[in-house]
Specification:
Pfam families: Anticodon_3, tRNA-synt_1g. The chain has 610 residues and is an alpha/beta fold. The chain is built from 24 helices and 16 strands. The chain binds 5'-O-[(L-methionyl)-sulphamoyl]adenosine (MSP). 5'-O-[(L-methionyl)-sulphamoyl]adenosine binds next to β1, α4 and β12.
């Protein structure tokens, strides 16, 4: 068995190792201290196994970018915390599409287990109806937030069940599943047995602040402990596997402290996928839901098996998750994949929490922010922009409405929206809304062009590094540079002077509108509707907007003779007590002093972690 395991580990390492240098892996022995109480027919499950072994030819080609959000529990409708991961994922997916990659953006809902069955009962529904309803509310919210996912998987989909069973059988055939009694403290909200060491007073779960319950069960176990060494090797050889880098230490110390086998079935829970050959037990939600990342890859009309699913896009390029579920993704999941002989995902990024009064916002704590209300009140662009700009991706961040309004007014309405509106107004008044020259010739010898090019590069690097707040900041800096140029050149005065001055003013407007065009593209992963509105006002069609690529951020897209649309505000200011609007004050202040760059620091908060 050690040899078999080493083959899959070797494959995993090869695929994680960009330079394909040979790893030296010492054989290790299995620690199966329990006997299986039931013997499955392993030949039945091992067929086709070799075909699934991952080799480099099997790897997702570099032009395909597969990214996933967690599959959300359907115990309650989505809150802003669940929306946060999805907004970030959508922005990353949109950026990768702009780079010309084929993107498979996977999201979905996690519908089995005790927590879901209990919430269905509490709502007087049968679990199936309950899941349909809540899963639909996720889809509705994604629509409202302009989330352009490619695949939506529900763990109650029959195709998912087929893949989970096949996966279970492969792990079983590899000798990694055994049966044993387990006694411990269980947090139903985490759907996890907890170590007493990590609990608060009265055995309370630190994430959900509710007491864990004592449980004793006869379960099937996954031999996680066998994978301790391989996991250590993988992480030391591929430190970028866990991001941000400061989360790697956490994962390494979990592993170092000793990995314990974990229970992968439940005897007391009916609402789940039956364990193959033992319908008295259901498969543990995590051993079920993680497989959604693979089962999502097939279409309903395709063959529903691991081989087909894997061939359609596995391994994932990026699992985007909250830090509370890092252990499942950076420890359990890679070990499960190794056991089944499948390639590991390329990266797991654990972001921080949206908090309220320092506590993780969540359904279980009941301290959530309503995303539907927020979108209806402020629109999808404001919501997307605020959370991605305000919270350094990876850190925690607290929400306040005052801050929300300050930021979106200052950045989207003033710096970006107003600049466009003023420029189009002047163009209409003085040039019949028509560009007098190409933007390339207008910008000859003008330093602003170089400034913008550097900021576009900065935005690109930040998007690539998943530093979404810094990407927003780079785009805002382009807006600031445009505003500064407008104020310094004062084209409205030059038009009044007439002659050569008026000609120069007409060129200035072309330059500023070119800046706006570049902003529209660079901002489109974050605020797609706003970007479309800007693009349309510049005289482009929806088709033209839909076919833009990151290359179009190069200076020179606007041509002489192009006619601009009628100016109308692209982002309506949110009205509020001006006293509270500290961010707007900063913008006004920076304009007076000529220091146009506005930098907003987020105070990271420390939050109790799972
Ligand atoms: N069902 C599991 C995931 C299975 S993935 C195969 C789950 N679901 S969840 O609905 O509880 O959480 C889904 C995601 O939402 C997690 O990444 C979690 O971190 C994130 N968030 C939930 N509340 C959050 C905040 N308050 N802030 C930011 N993200 C948070 O776990």
């Amino acid at each position: 068995m050690a040899a078999k395991l080493n083959t899959s580990l070797h494959n995993a390492l090869c695929l994680l190792n960009p330079f394909n240098t040979p790893f030296s892996i010492k054989p290790f022995s299995s620690r199966n201290s329990f006997r299986f109480s039931k013997k499955l027919n392993s030949s039945q499950y091992s067929s086709g196994r070799r075909a699934l072994y991952c080799t480099s030819s099997h790897e997702n080609d570099a032009e395909t970018f597969v990214l996933t959000t967690p599959l959300y529990y359907v115990n309650a409708p989505p809150h802003m915390g669940s929306a946060y991961t999805t907004i970030a994922a959508d922005s990353i997916a949109r950026f990768q599409r702009l780079l010309g990659k084929k993107v498979i953006f996977i999201t979905g809902t996690d519908e089995h287990g005790e927590k879901i069955a209990t919430s269905a009962a509490a709502n007087g529904r049968n679990p199936g109806d309950h899941c349909d309803l809540i899963s639909q509310s996720y889809r509705t919210l994604w629509k409202e937030l302009d989330i352009a996912y490619d695949k939506f998987i529900r763990t109650t989909d029959p195709k998912h069940e087929a893949i989970v069973k096949e996966f279970y059988a492969r792990v079983f055939a590899n000798g990694d599943i055994y049966r044993a009694d387990y006694e411990g403290l269980y947090c139903v909200n985490c759907e996890e047995y907890k170590d007493e060491k990590e609990l608060l007073e009265n055995n309370c779960c630190p994430v959900h602040q509710m007491p864990c319950v004592a449980r004793k069960e006869d379960n099937y176990f996954f031999a996680l402990s066998k994978y301790q060494k391989p996991l250590e090797e993988i992480l030391s050889q591929n430190p970028r596997f866990v991001q941000p880098s400061y989360r790697l230490n956490e994962v390494q110390s979990w592993i170092k402290s000793g990995l314990r086998d974990f229970s992968i079935s439940r005897a007391l829970v009916d609402w789940g996928i039956p364990v193959p050959d033992d319908d008295k037990q259901t498969i543990y939600v995590w051993f079920d839901a993680l497989l959604g990342y693979i089962s999502a890859l097939t279409d309903d009309n395709e063959q529903q098996n691991l081989e087909t699913a894997v061939s359609l896009g596995w391994p994932a390029s990026l699992h985007l998750i909250g830090k509370d579920i890092l252990r499942f993704h950076a420890v359990y999941w890679p070990a499960m994949l190794m056991s089944a002989g499948l390639t590991l995902p390329k990266m797991v990024f654990g972001h921080g929490f949206l908090t309220k009064d320092g506590m993780k916002m969540g359904k279980s704590l009941g301290n959530t922010l309503e995303p539907f209300e927020l979108v209806q009140k402020f629109g999808p662009d404001a919501v997307r922009y605020f959370f991605l700009r305000e919270v350094e991706f990876g850190n925690d961040g607290d929400y306040s409405e005052d801050r929300f309004i300050s930021i979106v007014n200052a950045h989207l309405a003033n710096t970006i929206g107003n600049l466009l509106n003023r420029t189009l107004g002047l163009l209409k008044k003085n040039c019949e809304s028509t560009l007098v020259v190409d933007s390339t010739s207008a910008a000859e010898g003008i330093p602003l062009k170089d400034t913008v090019e550097k900021l576009v590069e900065k935005a690109q690097t930040n998007y690539e590094n998943l530093s979404l707040s810094s990407a927003c900041e780079a785009v805002l800096e382009i807006g600031n540079a445009g505003n500064l140029y407008m104020d310094q050149r004062a084209p409205w005065l030059l038009f009044k002077q007439g002659g050569v001055s008026a000609e120069a003013a007409a060129k200035d407007l072309v330059i500023i509108l070119e800046v706006m065009r570049i902003i529209a593209i660079a901002l489109s992963p974050i605020a797609p509707c706003l970007s479309l509105r800007i693009y349309s006002q510049l005289g482009f069609s929806l088709d033209q907007f839909n076919s833009i690529t990151w290359n179009d951020t190069k200076w020179g897209g606007l041509k002489g003779g192009q006619v601009m649309a009628q100016a109308s505000p692209v982002f309506a200011r949110i009205e509020l007590n001006p006293e509270k609007n500290e961010e707007e004050k900063k913008v006004k202040e920076s304009k007076k002093t000529g220091k146009a760059k506005v930098k907003v620091e987020l105070q990271p908060k420390t939050v109790a972690e799972a």
